[in-house]
Write a structure and sequence with these properties.
By secondary structure, this protein is α/β, with parallel strands linked by helices. The chain is elongated. About 0% of the residues have low confidence.
């Protein structure tokens, strides 16, 4: 039994007959198997070749795990006290229990920490939500205040020219036989209506820009022609106060560009109009155009406007592009400003991917520097010389179909056309215009002026109906939109419906007649 130890392997016994002949416990040698309690219990159990559990019924502590086998005359026994087996098991159970408790404790700590973090995050989110609600409430309150202030300003600014118009009519009625007074009243009515039109345009422009609904065009135009055309329009307004507009350097290497000329014209007009409004009597305005650089099919053009006006303080310069911002309290009455021109110009420049910079000194004047990127139009046709008088002789005796549902607008349009030597036939709605054209002989009408907002058929539907007629002049006759819908998308709808040009109300007589002459002299 050498190599077998009782603590590690238990007690091993080999018996033959009634005597133990070998054991790793020398004290058992020579004893009878029945004299050793574990062997007696194993023999009584009577099972061989399997592990069994035996115990002494009289003494609780005498419990064993044992094994017995037989080979010829020899019996081999192996047994361990129950306590010996479970010594490590108890330790393992204790260790396992402690580990389990530690794991449970860690899980509980993690759970509590997670719950605490969740509650903190929830509290943070609730706090952020409450803060966002407060900010939204403040913004809503600020918006309501801004709306109230806007309506107050608009009420004042709209009523002022309306009051002037109605007042001048009253004065004109009183001096009905005084032709000089009549002429003076008409001139002032014209000025007041121009201010009202400017205000409406700027409010509509600002609304479109703030809502993000501005739609830029992408069509050819000549930058030099655009600027000189604006100068021609504004020179009369400037001359009334002795202000000189000088175009010192407006030659461009690439004057023919592709962009949104309607919006370029709008922002340049705003800049020049401000230079006139806030200039001094007998002052000057200097305009220049420079091509800063060109790369392939793209050119960057800088427009400069320098005036000798009242300038701006350094403090007000920080607020120049804010809606309704005006440095002088009496600016509306003194200069006729609305405080919307510069915000509109800035928004248009941003929409076109350009920049605006300025320098100003109070009492000395302001200079604006506007840089805009354009695509170069390499396929442009030569432009006519700017300022060339329009040949209106082609209009004499031409017959115009005039579709207009408003009596006052119809009377004005008929006067402008007939005064230029044109003949007119009126249609009171879109369907009547289509019917009159369809019933006429080919070539009866030389052009159609089509209002857009009309009953039965609007101008777009009437135009499509005329273009679809099976007659030789249906596709060729010039059709012009004549409408108060003045935005880019309105122009696009007019062209998409088959119209040739888009004329905005109130009608500019010179623009109307020039446009007709361009098509009728072909």
């Amino acid at each position: 039994m050498a190599g077998f130890t009782i603590p590690g392997d238990g007690t091993l016994v080999v018996a033959r007959g009634d005597s133990i002949i070998a054991s790793n416990d020398e004290s058992l040698l020579g004893l009878a198997p029945d004299a050793v309690l574990p062997l007696q219990l194993l023999r009584e159990r009577g099972r061989f070749d399997q592990m069994v559990y035996v115990r002494d019924a009289t003494i609780r502590s005498r419990r064993y795990f044992g094994y017995a086998t037989q080979g010829r005359d020899f019996y081999v026994y192996a047994y361990l006290p129950e306590g010996t087996i479970y010594t490590k098991t108890i330790k393992n159970l204790m260790f396992t229990s402690v580990a389990y408790l530690l794991i449970v404790l860690m899980i509980e700590l993690v759970r509590r920490r997670t719950l605490q973090n969740y509650q903190q995050e929830k509290a943070r989110q609730e706090h952020a939500y409450q803060a966002s609600l407060e900010q939204a409430a403040h913004r809503a309150e600020a918006a309501n205040i801004a709306k109230t202030e806007f309506l107050q300003r608009m009420s004042h600014d709209i009523r002022t020219p309306i009051n002037g118009i109605r007042g001048m009519i009253e004065i004109g009625n009183h001096y009905s036989t005084d032709m000089a007074k009549q002429a003076e009243c008409r001139e002032k009515i014209w000025e007041a209506s121009g201010l009202l039109l400017e205000l409406v345009n700027e409010v509509l422009d600002m609304g479109k820009l703030e809502s993000g609904e501005i739609v830029l065009e992408h069509r050819p135009f000549n930058m030099v022609t655009l600027l000189t055309g604006l100068c021609d329009v504004l020179e009369k307004q400037a001359a009334e106060r002795g202000i000189t507009i000088r175009c010192e350097d407006i030659a461009l290497p690439h004057p023919d560009l592709i962009g949104s000329p309607l919006h370029v014209k709008r922002l340049v007009m705003n800049i020049i109009s401000n230079a006139i409004k806030y200039n001094k009597d007998n002052g000057s305005i200097t305009l220049t155009l420079h091509e800063l650089r060109s790369e392939g099919d793209k050119a960057w053009v800088r427009f400069t406007c320098a005036d000798t006006g009242i300038g701006m303080s350094e403090e007000f310069q920080k607020h120049l592009f804010e809606p309704f911002a005006q440095e002088l309290l009496d600016a509306r009455s003194t200069y006729g400003g609305t405080g919307l021109g510069m915000p509109i110009a800035k928004a248009l420049i941003d929409a076109m991917g350009g920049t605006i910079e300025f320098t100003s000194r109070q009492g000395e004047g302001t200079t604006y520097y506007i840089t805009l990127p354009f695509a170069v139009d390499h396929a442009a046709a030569p432009q006519p010389l700017p300022g060339a008088p329009a040949d209106l002789s082609a209009l004499q005796g031409k017959h115009i179909l005039l579709a207009e549902d408003n009596d006052l607008n119809l009377e004005i349009a008929e006067f402008l056309l007939q005064n230029a030597g044109l003949r007119t036939t009126a249609a009171r709605n879109g369907q009547e215009a289509v019917t009159l054209f369809a019933a006429s002989a080919p070539g009866t009408f030389d052009a159609i002026l089509m209002d857009v907002m009309m009953p039965q058929l609007d101008g777009y539907e009437a135009t499509r109906a005329i273009r679809a007629l099976d007659r030789p002049d249906a596709a060729a006759i010039p059709i012009f939109a004549m409408t108060a819908n003045a935005f880019t998308e309105d122009r696009r709808r007019a062209y998409d419906s088959g119209m040739n040009e888009h004329l905005t109300k109130p009608l500019e007589p010179d623009t109307l007649l020039r446009t007709l002459a361009k098509y009728l002299q072909r």
